[in-house]
Amino acid sequence: MQEIIDKIYYVGVNDRNKELFEGLWPLPDGVSYNSYLINDDKVCLIDTVEVDFFMPFIRNIHEVIGDRQIDYLVINHMEPDHSGSIALIKKYYPDIKIIGNKKTFGMMEGFYGVNDNCVEVKNGDVLELGGHVLKFVLTPMVHWPETMVTLDTSCNVLFSGDAFGCFGALNGGLIDSQINCDTFWLEMVRYYSNIVGKYGTPVQNALKKLAGVPIDYICSTHGPVWHEHIGKVVGMYDSMSRYETAPGLVVCYGTMYGNTEHAAEVIARAASQAGLKDIVMYNVSKTHHSYIIRDVFRYRGLIVGAPTYNTGLYHEMDVLLSELAGRDIKNHCLGWFGSHGWASRAVAKIQEWNDTRLHFEPVGTPVDIRQSLDSETFAMCEALGKAMAEKLLAE
After folding, report:
1. Element housing 128 (H / E)
2. What domains appear along the chain, each with residue ranges and CATH number?
3. What angle do CA 324, 325, 328 make, to 5 degrees?
4. In the chain, % of residues over pLDDT 70
5. DSSP string, 149-185
6. What is the pTM of this model?
7. What is the DSSP track for 308-353?
8. In this protein, which residues make up the domain named Flavodoxin-like (predicted)?
9. Backbone CA torsion sign across 163, 169, 175, 181
């Protein structure tokens, strides 16, 4: 097992088989479950791994400490991909003391029936292991109510739980300085936007608690250990939690027979001809919504369109708008269009979503297409794309 710095070891595992994280989010490149071991006068384990990976996990621990006992287990986050091995760890180390905050222990008993040898910590409490001194900082609702982070003040290491994590297994290298991180940046945005995205204010509160704290390593529970790129990683979280965006455009559409797709192509082309360079297009029935949500977090402009279906809005578009509304996304511009065969409902339904849940800034005139584009609706689609581009470029 690799030593990160001064008796701090990585003992985590990779999951290259799971297809959907939390049963929801695709994992084309897998995911890591990161755990860390401090081998000091007292031995301290930071978080565990998903229970299916317990045997390689315990093997990693033995590789570092042999037959030594683990004195403490710090639980920064109770989601089962990090806490799932608690009950089994206690069977191997029955005297281990489990450190968490008050909300940690109620969840731990509920999930695993474990309620003994618990040491409750409050914000700012410290634990001395010998040369290493741990300080606990509570960060509620990033993204569960019990979440906290642990600072090793002796060597400026932050054990951050899910914060600053991303999708993607670790392919040999562990620390960002050892690997090409190009594949992780967009996966960090997808991870944040889909899992943490609703909780911008709690993330900002957590960042304020850590402001000015010297940090040389960030040891998250998913993805690389950050060292060289700490400034970029913290900056990304700061920007995303403020809902800051770049002047780009997401055009996403539902289509049954190609008419709504044709309109989307016209809109995107008009936006491009107006000078906008960053444009991405998605068919909501083909692309997993996690990628669309990722790019909505990246770009300020959004244009959506879909057919009327069963006197309502095309199902996959309805789902996407619900997902966006559930994340309390702010600071976006919205244009919309729709199509129908004989009864128009899609355009009105999209406007209803915006009026009642999304509250994005409307841009341009909505386009309602009967059957297929004619010269009038074609020109209206061009005008919609141009209006959005001019709005974004002017800002």
Report:
1. strand 126-128
2. 3-241 (3.60.15.10), 246-394 (3.40.50.360)
3. 95
4. 100
5. EEEETTTTEEEEETTT--SB---S--BGGGS--HHHH
6. 0.94
7. EETTEE-HHHHHHHHHHHTTT--S-EEEEEEEESSS--HHHHHHHH
8. 249-389
9. negative
